[in-house]
């Protein structure tokens, strides 16, 4: 019985991990923006209340913050701010990606 448990336990744990990754992907939206400077792909994870994107050749992951209007995500250096179908990215209070328009928005 112990041998069976030792064989089955890793398989069960692997199954849990795969399931969690599946659920995570199901709760993540991919948003495509066209900004003045270049296109931008943003992953919005509703469960974790965070966004992630590539900027300066690095993955940026920002947590949702307080916003009077729209949705604001920040890590203290970068800010991703969206309202409706538009977004702006700031780095240390300076705009680095401007006039980002959501492509094929859901209505």
TrEMBL record:
Signal sequence, renumbered to the chain: 1-19
Annotated C-type lysozyme inhibitor domain residues: 33-94
The UniProt record lists the keyword RNA-binding: no
InterPro entries: MliC, MliC_sf
Alphabetized UniProt keyword annotations: Lipoprotein, Membrane, Palmitate, Signal
Entry-linked Gene3D superfamilies: 2.40.128.200
Name of the molecule in the record: C-type lysozyme inhibitor
Species per Swiss-Prot/TrEMBL record: Citrobacter enshiensis
């Amino acid at each position: 019985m112990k041998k069976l448990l030792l064989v089955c336990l890793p398989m069960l744990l692997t199954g849990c991990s795969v399931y969690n990754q599946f659920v995570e992907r199901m709760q993540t939206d991919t948003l495509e923006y066209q900004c003045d400077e270049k296109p931008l792909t943003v992953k919005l994870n509703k469960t974790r209340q965070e966004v992630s994107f590539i900027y300066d050749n690095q993955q940026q992951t920002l947590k949702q913050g307080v916003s009077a209007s729209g949705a604001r995500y920040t890590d203290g250096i970068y800010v991703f701010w969206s309202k409706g179908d538009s977004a702006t990215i700031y780095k240390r209070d300076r705009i680095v990606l401007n006039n980002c328009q959501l492509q094929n928005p859901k209505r």
